[in-house]
Design goal:
- The chain is built from one helix and eleven strands.
- It is mainly β.
- The chain is globular and about 40 Å long.
- The chain starts with a strand and ends with a strand.
- The relative contact order is 0.32.
């Protein structure tokens, strides 16, 4: 599975960004796609994930009410709409893919596949 992210950039506090991620090479019927983020010196943090059926999506409490995860009709593309961004949201954002779903993989912010990351900087 290959993951390609886009949409990162620099924005002022209070602004918005929309990240996109497209997966290719999927051979699984059911899977989970999501977003993690990481800053230098800190561990990877959970942001959000969505089930391939689209009926389950979870946003971490740290960004709830500001971030929304969704998927395109094609289901191999997901989006992360980030509103009211804060300087603490500054991080490298990684798209992630997990065949099936493992609660521990979510808790540990460690899905099977990760993209290269897209930088989000909020000043």
């Amino acid at each position: 599975v290959q993951l390609v992210e886009s949409g990162g950039g620099s924005v002022q506090a209070g602004g918005s960004l929309r990240l996109s991620c497209t997966a290719s090479g999927i051979t699984y019927s059911n899977y989970c796609m999501g977003w993690f983020r990481q800053t230098p010196g800190k561990g990877r943090e959970r942001v959000a994930y969505i089930w391939s059926g689209g009926d389950v999506n979870i946003v971490d409490d740290s960004v709830k009410g500001r971030f929304t995860i969704s998927q395109a009709n094609a289901k191999n593309t997901i989006f992360l709409q980030m509103n009211d961004l804060k300087p603490d949201d500054t991080a490298m954002y990684y798209c992630a893919f997990e065949s099936g779903f493992s609660p521990m993989a979510w808790v540990r912010a460690n899905f099977e596949y990760l993209g290269q990351g897209t930088q989000v900087t909020v000043s």
